[in-house]
């Protein structure tokens, strides 16, 4: 009887351990936000699978810390991988996170692939496990149907961005692709203007829709965006709350700032 109870306790402990940790696929891991997502997931005991052009670059961003077999890195351009490659890499993953973006260079903005984010989202959502969560980092410049109507000036600027700056159109198309498919779980996280911060202050607010002006509003740190995305992976209730939604994240204003 004692042996049975002992083995039962071990089994329960193992199940709890599995429930508290997840295997997550991250694309855009060497980016300014993606590196925070990877580090937070690993530091909390999760396993991470990622595709990067340079493993050395990623490890440098992670301070060359040894995470053992909890970090699996494949060196490749994400769009060079086959469907079977992506199926294999995302197998058993609880969540797929995309922090992918275009490099802010002439080639990165106007060169190919112009639909890097959209094509990656389409391919990953077709390859990922059926019950996996897909998390996409977008921006508050990407519209959601429930958002308040923009001012004429804002609509003109967004129109110009859409047709003159390919990365903006790419982000819009990626979010639109997800919005029109409710057959799997997805959330689009829309940060306001991004700033750098080495560690997450957790001092941020989440809104169901965009609020205030598109220009000159509150900023949010990349580390805080990463923190929110990791919380969505960890927290069942929060994940259900924002399922098929596009929450906006911004820095929490102090009372005196709100009065301005």
TrEMBL record:
InterPro entries: NAD(P)-bd_dom, NAD(P)-bd_dom_sf. Keywords: Signal. Residues 1-21 form the signal peptide. Residues 28-235 form the NAD(P)-binding domain. This is NAD(P)-binding domain-containing protein.
């Amino acid at each position: 009887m004692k042996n049975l109870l002992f083995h039962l306790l071990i089994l329960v402990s193992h199940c709890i351990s599995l429930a508290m940790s997840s295997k997550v696929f991250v694309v855009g891991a060497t980016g300014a936000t993606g590196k925070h997502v990877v580090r937070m997931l690993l530091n909390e005991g999760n396993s991470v699978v990622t595709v990067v052009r340079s493993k050395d670059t990623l490890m440098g961003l992670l301070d060359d810390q040894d995470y053992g077999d909890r970090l699996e890195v494949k060196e490749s351009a994400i769009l060079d991988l086959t469907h079977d490659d992506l199926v294999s890499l995302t197998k058993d993953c609880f969540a797929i996170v995309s922090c992918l973006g275009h490099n802010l260079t002439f080639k990165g903005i106007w060169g190919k692939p112009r639909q890097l984010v959209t094509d990656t989202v389409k391919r990953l959502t077709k390859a990922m496990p059926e019950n996996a969560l897909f998390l996409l980092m977008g921006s508050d410049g990407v519209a959601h149907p429930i958002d308040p109507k923009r001012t004429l000036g804002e609509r003109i600027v967004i129109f110009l961005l859409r047709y003159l700056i390919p990365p903006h159109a790419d982000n819009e198309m990626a979010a639109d692709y997800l919005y029109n498919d409710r057959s799997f779980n997805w959330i689009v996280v829309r940060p306001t203007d991004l700033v750098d911060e080495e560690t997450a202050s957790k001092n941020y607010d989440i809104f169901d829709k965009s609020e205030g002006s598109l220009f000159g509003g509150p900023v949010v740190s990349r580390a805080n965006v990463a923190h929110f995305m990791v919380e969505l992976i960890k927290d069942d209730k929060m994940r259900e709350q924002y399922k098929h939604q596009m929450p906006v994240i911004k820095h929490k204003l102090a009372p005196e700032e709100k009065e301005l």
